[in-house]
From TrEMBL:
Species per Swiss-Prot/TrEMBL record: Bordetella flabilis
Family statement drawn from the similarity comment of this UniProt entry: Belongs to the UPF0065 (bug) family.
Cross-referenced PANTHER family: BLR1237 PROTEIN (PTHR42928:SF5), TRICARBOXYLATE-BINDING PROTEIN (PTHR42928)
Protein known as: ABC transporter substrate-binding protein
PROSITE patterns: TAT
Keyword field: Signal
Signal peptide (UniProt feature, chain positions): 1-29
Domain of life: Bacteria
Length: 331
């Protein structure tokens, strides 16, 4: 997908936002207390464990002192993020319930005939917490050493190669489907219930390639079990500067970015949203968060709410077009 906001511009906006206020301090000084005096609930659309849950818990811990309140992580997996989003839509409009949504916020409406939310009308964006690059990988002993090698092998044996994903409609599936389409490949998609079983079959030789997010990939890459052929974001992956992009490997315009962002229920007062934005931005700028993000290969976010709203809109439009053209659905 080639969104109107490139990932390079998104990262630049996030970096600039680390020091820029969204609403003037004078405006805030004239308002009542931004948030009610009660704990903040941070809803994570995944089960405990894993890089996103760990990121949510870390951000919550670092935010707590600046917000002068406890931050409780509430894991609500299921339904492609719908369960977590519904929990926010039924919460008070006071800023004390925040969801750490994945990019499924914008892909699920294009994949399903009906969803119980409007991504732009039902939520107020706070900021992107992190960008998670996806990487096309093969087994370490695979004959393909470049993306061109893999494409040549697939075209020499139409229908013989398979790629796995963590499930129908996931970022890994969409990246694989879009790449196969752009490269003109006749390959089979094999969905799994999570990245781990798909990776097991890749290592066993039952799959030939797959897209993996960098946090999942890094331990296997360091152990010499997989080979990274190309990264999906056109701007590359900070954790893998030596790995070429798909766009630079013969497929210009290929630019898939997965993100996780903080949102609240639509109608939350601006002072509450500003307080949350400041707290998340400051948390991302902390040494503890910087070390964690670098260790797992997540690129930090931090863009102000208007820029995040633009990203949501652009991704909604872009993914609807792409998913419709590829005839992908999950119900």
């Amino acid at each position: 997908m080639n969104a109107s906001l490139s990932r390079r511009r998104l990262l630049a906006a996030a970096a600039a936002a680390m020091t820029a206020p969204w609403v003037s301090r004078a405006t805030l000084a004239a308002t009542p207390a931004a948030l009610p005096d009660k704990p903040l609930r941070l809803i994570v659309p995944f089960a405990p464990g894993g890089p996103v849950d760990s990121l949510g818990r870390l951000i919550g811990k670092v935010m707590s002192p600046s917000l002068k309140r406890s931050v409780v992580v509430d894991n609500r997996p299921g339904g492609g993020g719908i369960v977590a989003l519904n929990a926010v839509s039924s919460a008070p409009e006071d800023g004390t319930t925040v969801v750490l949504s994945s990019i499924t916020l914008v892909t699920t409406p294009a994949l399903m005939s009906s969803v119980p939310y409007d991504a732009e009308k039902d939520f107020d964006p706070i900021t992107v917490v992190g960008f998670i690059p996806h990487v096309l990988v093969v087994r370490e002993d695979d004959p393909a050493h470049t993306l061109a090698d893999l494409v040549k092998a697939a075209k020499s044996r139409p229908g013989a190669l398979s790629y796995g994903s963590s499930g129908n409609g996931t970022s890994a599936h969409l990246a694989g489907a879009l790449f196969a389409d752009r490269a003109g490949l006749d390959v089979t998609h094999v969905p799994y219930r999570g990245a781990a079983p798909a990776l097991t079959d890749l290592l066993a030789g039952r799959l030939q390639f797959m897209f993996l997010d960098v946090p999942t990939l890094l331990p296997y890459l360091r152990a010499g079990k997989v080979r990274a052929l190309a990264v999906a974001p056109a701007a590359g992956a900070r954790a893998l500067p030596e790995v070429p992009t798909i766009a630079a490997s013969g497929y210009p315009g290929f630019d898939i970015h997965a993100w996780y962002g903080a949102l609240v229920k639509a109608g939350t007062p601006a002072p509450a949203r500003q307080a949350l934005y400041d707290a998340v931005r400051d948390a991302l700028n902390s040494d503890e968060a910087k070390r964690y993000l670098a260790s797992v290969g997540i690129d930090p976010g931090g863009m102000p709410p208007p820029a995040f709203a633009t990203l949501i809109h652009d991704d909604l439009v872009g993914w609807k077009q792409t998913i419709g053209r590829l005839h992908i659905s999950i119900g």
